[in-house]
Write a structure and sequence with these properties.
alpha+beta; 8-stranded mixed sheet; 3-stranded antiparallel sheet; 2 helices; binds zinc ion
């Protein structure tokens, strides 16, 4: 189940010692990085990516990425949740940062586990409040798309493609239940290595 090799840790962030051991601490059941110098146990847990699906009439707002990974491909506004931040505040912040867009965040929509990279995607539906949007520093272009305009072959991440496909299906069905799912490691393909 713990599929990927744990990342390397060279130094203890508590005391600076280079004597880091990977072992199961007393009373635990998984290997952790433990400092042999000061005894600190460095727990590592999944990261949360939070974002939203901004709607305007029958269109949705997408951003074309100006940064790696997946430079030039399309995504919904989303990014890593910060310490001390709520999910909704994170979705609002990412939408301002990437699309200079103001949204009213609505219901929780998709929750997607990516165990092979230890990430959880949390996407909300959201209502775009006005049309004063535009690319932030992390985006090349920001625009509204109708369903038949969505660049399906140019999606930056599988999580985003899945969220959008669910959305247009659910919109036809007239209800948007929260959808909890898993994306496993993709079968190796030279042109797609290393991405979610
Ligand atoms: Zn230490």
């Amino acid at each position: 189940m713990a599929d990927p090799a744990p990342p390397v840790m060279k130094f203890c962030s508590a005391c600076g010692s280079g004597r880091i051991e990977l072992r199961v601490p007393d009373g635990d059941n998984l290997p952790r990085f433990v400092c042999a110098g000061c005894g600190a146990i460095h727990y590592q847990n999944p990261k949360v990516v939070v974002g939203c699906l901004p709607e305007w009439e029958d269109q949705v707002l997408l951003c074309r990425r100006a940064i790696a990974p997946r430079h030039g491909l399309w995504t919904l506004p989303a990014g890593f949740l910060e310490n001390g931040e709520t999910l909704v505040a994170g979705a609002v912040r990412e939408t301002i940062e990437e699309a200079s867009a103001r949204v009213a965040v609505g219901e929780l929509y998709t929750v997607i586990s990516l165990p092979h990279i230890s990430q959880i995607y949390v996407m909300f539906r959201a209502r775009l409040l006005d049309l004063e949007f535009g690319p932030g520093p992390e985006s090349l272009e920001v625009r509204l798309f109708r369903e038949d305009e969505i660049p399906w072959d140019e999606m930056a991440f599988r999580t985003i493609g899945r969220t959008l496909r669910n959305y247009f299906l659910d919109r036809r069905l007239g209800a948007f239940p929260t959808r909890v799912s898993v994306l496993e490691r993709r079968a190796p393909r030279a042109d797609l290595s290393g991405a979610a």
